[in-house]
Amino acid sequence: MSIGDFSVAGRLADTGEGITGDELQLAARNHGMPLEGLRYDVTPPGLHYVLVHYDIPATAAGDWRLTVGGRVEEPLSFGLTELRAMGRRTIRVTLECAGNGRATLQPRPISQPWLSEAVGTAEWTGVLLADLLRLAGLREDAVDVVFTGADHGVERGVEQDYQRGLSVAEAIESGTIVAWEMNGAPLPPQHGYPLRLVVPGWYGMASVKWLRSIEVIDHEFDGYQNKVAYVLRKTPDDPGRPVTRIEPRALLIPPGFPDFMSRHRFVAAGTVPLFGRAWSGWAPIERVEVSTDAGVNWHEAKLDAPSNDELAWRAFAYDWEATPGEHVLTVRAYDTSGREQPIEAEWNRGGFSNNTAQRITVLVT
Amino acid sequence: MSIGDFSVAGRLADTGEGITGDELQLAARNHGMPLEGLRYDVTPPGLHYVLVHYDIPATAAGDWRLTVGGRVEEPLSFGLTELRAMGRRTIRVTLECAGNGRATLQPRPISQPWLSEAVGTAEWTGVLLADLLRLAGLREDAVDVVFTGADHGVERGVEQDYQRGLSVAEAIESGTIVAWEMNGAPLPPQHGYPLRLVVPGWYGMASVKWLRSIEVIDHEFDGYQNKVAYVLRKTPDDPGRPVTRIEPRALLIPPGFPDFMSRHRFVAAGTVPLFGRAWSGWAPIERVEVSTDAGVNWHEAKLDAPSNDELAWRAFAYDWEATPGEHVLTVRAYDTSGREQPIEAEWNRGGFSNNTAQRITVLVT
Lengths: 365, 365
Fold this sequence. Notes:
Two copies of one chain form a homodimer.
Chain A: H1 3-6, H2 21-29, E1 66-70, E2 76-78, H3 80-84, E3 89-96, E4 119-128, H4 129-136, E5 144-155, E6 158-167, H5 168-173, E7 177-182, E8 185-186, E9 196-198, E10 211-217, H6 224-229, E11 231-232, E12 241-242, E13 249-252, E14 257-258, E15 265-267, E16 270-279, E17 285-291, E18 299-300, E19 302-303, E20 314-322, E21 325-335, E22 359-364
Keywords (chains A, B): Metal-binding, Molybdenum, Oxidoreductase
Domain Oxidoreductase molybdopterin-binding (chains A, B): 53-224
GO molecular function, one term (chains A, B): sulfite oxidase activity
C-alpha cells in the first residue's frame, strides 16, 4: 500500500447522498463563525472561522525563522524579535474561506462542507510584506512570490508543505502583511502561531499560516494550491480560472430564537430589527438590499459608516415589520467595483467563491 | 403553522443514511478540538470544544446580575464586581460533551454529530458555588439547585431557557464554581461571557453558560435537560438513567501527517513517539494502555505526573517501533474508581457517554 491508496481524486456527491464520513471529519475539526457572531465588529478569536488543511503544527516562537530568498539581491532571515523591529502595522481584515457555501451546491463537491459561516474579521498586526521585499531587493526577473507554511500533508496523492504564490504586483499592492498578532494577542495556534501571511481582500487560502519561507521566483508559480486545488472549473479537464479575491456577500444574523436541531427560527410579530454585515474583496460595499418575501421585493438596508480598512466588512440594519406566518429572508450586497451578489451563484467543481444569497426561513408567531 | 411543526422528536439514522443537513448545521456551528490540540496542557480557548444549544446570547458584563433565590434564608443578587469580591479560585478542568463519539454509533442518533474531539481543558477562575449557597443560607427543605442561562430556544417542541439542576450535595461537594475567567482572560462569548457554571467531573451539559439565576428548590428538578434530553435510554419509552459524570477516555494525537480529505495518517518507519491524554470524571487516571495491532496486544503507557486538579486530564506517552505496512492504533484508560474504558461502549438512543476506544489507522512507509 502507498499514500496514493488513501489520498484520492476529488469527486461530487451522488444525487441525494448525505454528508460523508470524510466530510464530517473535516467539519468536526474546522469551524465556522456562528452567524450571531456577526454582531461583533471584530470577531473574537475562537469564533473566527478556521480551516486547516493538514494538522496544526507544533511551533515555538523562540526559535522561529522566516527566510526571504530566491530572486532577491540579499537573502534575509528573521527571528520574531528582528521582525518586530521592522515596523508595526495593524489592519482590520475580513477573511472568508474560498469554500464557503460549498455544501449548499447541487451537485455537492466533496470537501470541507461549509454552509455560509466560514468568515471572520480580525485586527492583524505585523509588518508590510512590501517592506520585507524592499529590504531584500527584488531582482529584475522577479515574477511570483512563494509562501511556505510549516504544515505538511497530502492532497489527492501529492505530498506537500502548504504553499501559495502571489504575483510580485499583488504581493506589494494588496497591502499584505506578515502578522504575529491577532486582535492584540499572539496568534492562536490554529491561526498560524507564531507568524502568518494576511492578504487583504483575498480568500483565506492566500493567507499562509505558520509562515517560514518567502521565496521570489522568476516564473509563474505552478504549485498544487495555485494550479490544482483553488481553481474554478466546470469539468475535470477544464483549465479553469484561479480563485483570487472574495466575491461580495451579505449575511444577516438570523432573528429570533432557534430550534436546537433544525435551526429553524421563531420570532414574535411586530418590528424586528434585522442586522448583518457585508463585504467584498474587490471594493468597498456601497449597498445592501434585504427581502423579507423570498426575493420578490427588495428594500435598501441602512449602512453603518465604513471601516477605515475598506475591505473589512460593513454593518447594515433593516427594520422588518413581521406579520404572523412563515417568511423567507434574503439579502444581497453590492460593491463599488460594480459587482453584485447573485441570488444564485454559478456552480463549479471545487465549490469555490459560492456567494449565493443567504436564505433564512422564519416562523412569525 | 406552529413551533411544533419545526421542532420534532429525536430519531435514529436509517441504515446507511449519510449525515443529514440538520446535523451538518450543528457541526458547522459547534466545534471540537482538533486532536493535535492534545499537545497543550491547557487548551487555547479557540481550540476548546464548544457546544451551544441555541444561539450565543448578546450579553454585557456591566449590567449582568446573578440571582440566588428559592429555598434560601436570604435571596441574593450579584453584579460582576460584587461576585469578584466573594473570592477567587482557579481550577483546571477537563470538559467533554456528553455526546462525544455520537456519530460513530450504529445506528446513529441524529443530533450534534461528534466523532471523538469534543473535549478541552481550561483553567477556570471564579467563586465556589458552595460559598454562595452558604451566604444565602440553604433552608432545611432544600433538595436541588437549578441553574438558568440566558440562552433561549426550542427542543423537540419545548420552548425553554437552558436550565440544569444538581442535587444540593453535588452542588457543594463537586467543587463547582461560578466562573468569570477562562485561562486568565474574561470568558469568550461562546464559553459563557460574562458568567458560567463549571462543574468538575461532569459532562459539559451541567456547566450552564451565561448564568443568570441559581434557584434552590424543595423537590427533584424535572426540567427538560435533566429529565428528557440527557438521559441514557435503550428505547424511546425507557425511563433511563441520567447522564452525569464523564466516563474514562484516552485519546492519542494521531501520529505522522494526514491526507487532507480522508484524514488517513502516514508516518515513516522507526521509533514513533506516541502522545496523548486521558481523563475520567469519576476518579484520577491510574493507567493507560496502548495497542499498535488493533487491540491484540496491549502495552502500558508512561504516565506524566498527575495535575494538581485530579479530574483534569493526564498526559501519557509510548514509543512505537513502527514497521512498514498498515497499523491500527488504539488506547484505553483506567481510573482509580475501578472504571475501565471499554473497547466498545454500550449503545444508547441519545448517543451519550460513548467512550468507545479510539482507533487510528496509520500507513507506515
